[in-house]
Amino acid sequence: MKLLVVVGARPNFVKTAPVINALPATGIDVAVLHTGQHYDYQMSGAFLDQLGFPKPKHVLGIGSGSHAEQTAAVLTGVELVLLGERFDAILVPGDVNSTLAAALAAAKLAVPVIHLEAGLRSGDWSMPEEINRVLTDRLSELRLCHSPEALDHLASEGITTGATVLVGNTMIDSLFDLLPAADARDCCGRLDLPQKGFVLVTLHRPALVDCPAALGEVLGTLQTISEELPVVFPVHPRTRARMGGALPAAIRVIEPLDYLDFMGLQAQARLVITDSGGVQEETSALGVPCITYRTSTERPITITHGTNRLVGLDPALLLAAAREELGRPPADSITPVPLWDGRAGIRAAAAIAVHFGAGLREPMSSPTSPIADTAESRYLSSTSEEQER
């Protein structure tokens, strides 16, 4: 079987690396297509090396642009690759424009689509990501889910073609794999930050940073929080462009960090304030308290797990939640999220191999199966020790 994996933005690499690394054991050949939606290969080479990510075979280099421009460019580029080389299936992760465009190109050419991180829903149709993920699930033959509520979302939408399998969170595989290397780099020490003695902030979503009044309010709140504990803010280029000179002096602004350094800071933060989806997951796996400054989340398991709070775009609620969290003693233990165990990539690779049966193309006719009671699915849901036996 030949599988094309399409990536377009930094989180895509983190999510797909564990699957790509596990696929050779199944006998499946993998080629990577990098659309360049956010990072071209030359700019992200160091990041890919950190993940042990293979060099992409195809690089589109589409760059930035409007949603329509990016989607159209990826749609055209992926179609040309699929017409020029036979692939038995295509794997697309997450919910960026590259994900939807690649899935649509493949579906039009009758190439089966595998959606990694399927079934996430925020219910917020103002988010471009929500549109991308819903449509991609509709186009997919095999949907790989990272948490139980994703299965419920897909079932409620009446998606019955193909197959749906709960495999866990592959992004956490990458986190656990690289955490020792991140700790060894001692980003806290280089920045002179006390371990568990600072607040880490990431803000970049248009709903916040494109509104001067809303951005100004949250910056004022962060300044108030900094009176209790140092606030460190690696500023996303989009956010910096909108801030101008409006940043309060009390907030420590630094340049964006690479994956390992940011991971190291997350692991040692006392509290994280973010509007990122992936950060909600990483802090939950690390046991670091997180406050999400958004009106919705497509990762409700982080809320029910107790490591994340959703406060909307309300600076008063943000300040109250931060003060409440900082007033508690740090947790001395971590309750793991089910299937966020560092083995999701192995389960995802096994699900692909089982579904496609040694590389044979199959029609979208098998029932939706959230880990049915079969020998194959018992392997997918078993522990690493059971698999090794």
Q: Your description of this structure?
A:
The chain has 389 residues and is an alpha/beta fold. It folds into 2 domains: 2-169 and 340-388, Glycogen Phosphorylase B (Rossmann fold), CATH 3.40.50; 185-326, 3-Layer(aba) Sandwich (Rossmann fold). The protein is built from 18 helices and 13 strands. It has helices at residues 10-22, 41-51, 67-84, 97-108, 128-139, 148-156, 170-185, 187-190, 206-209, 212-226, 237-243, 259-268, 277-286, 301-304, 315-326, 344-356, 375-381, 384-388, and strands spanning 2-7, 29-34, 58-59, 89-93, 113-118, 142-145, 163-166, 199-202, 231-234, 252-254, 271-274, 290-292, 308-310. A 7-stranded parallel β-sheet has the order 3-2-1-4-5-6-7, sandwiched between helices. A 6-stranded parallel β-sheet has the order 10-9-8-11-12-13, sandwiched between helices. Strand 12 (290-292), helix 14 (301-304) and strand 13 (308-310) form a beta-alpha-beta unit. Helix 4 (97-108) runs parallel beside helix 5 and helix 10 (212-226) packs parallel to helix 15. The chain is globular. Residues 359-389 have low confidence and may be disordered.
Topology record:
Layout: E1 2-7, H1 10-22, E2 29-34, H2 41-51, E3 58-59, H3 67-84, E4 89-93, H4 97-108, E5 113-118, H5 128-139, E6 142-145, H6 148-156, E7 163-166, H7 170-185, H8 187-190, E8 199-202, H9 206-209, H10 212-226, E9 231-234, H11 237-243, E10 252-254, H12 259-268, E11 271-274, H13 277-286, E12 290-292, H14 301-304, E13 308-310, H15 315-326, H16 344-356, H17 375-381, H18 384-388
Parallel strand pairs: 1-2, 1-4, 2-3, 4-5, 5-6, 6-7, 8-9, 8-11, 9-10, 11-12, 12-13
Helix pairs in contact: 1-7, 1-16, 3-4, 4-5, 7-12, 10-15, 16-17
